[in-house]
Amino acid sequence: MADLQSIIIPGILIGLIGGIILFLAAYSYYPEKHLNVNINGKCFEFMDSAFSDYENLEYENEILTKALQTKAIGESTNMVPVSYIGSELQVDKFIQEYPIEVTNYYKQQGSNLVADKIVIKGKMKNSDIVAYLEDISKDKENVMSRESLHNFGILPNKYISSQEGIEISKTTDKFMEYGLRAISTNDNGVNKAECRTKIVYGDTI
Asked: Among 99-108, 172-181, 182-191, where is mean pLDDT lowest?
């Protein structure tokens, strides 16, 4: 649990510190793994180490989001609707390693450029989701862990109210916004750039 808390607690603190500052963060991807970010009308290009910092930030934000969801769900024995999508090997590995009551299993047809995917839906105990997140958070540099986390989803459920969902979104948005601002101050891998992205991440913090 300590590993998970080391991600969650700093994330929440970072997201809640500070006053109301006019902030605009927007980004888009480039084939060279660049990230174009717009902060208060000033645009930056994240490359190399800065781009890696962004990937870590995004990963930690996804962990934080799901951890806050499990906290809102409450009781460890509550059965939670979940989904998982990946290759047949990835899905089978997930089913073998974590207790899940599969209710739907089907193949998502791919294309010439995208491989077929297996999609499962089912139910897991809240405690088993927490255990999964703890395992995933132990090695954030592991590509397979990152991909597995991206493949896993907690579906809408009766335990998380609309207001709780809004509060979770606010917390994770602030976490991302402060993180992007921090990365933009790095000396390595950050260059001033023209604003090429129209995707708005957040409005204010």
From this structure: 182-191
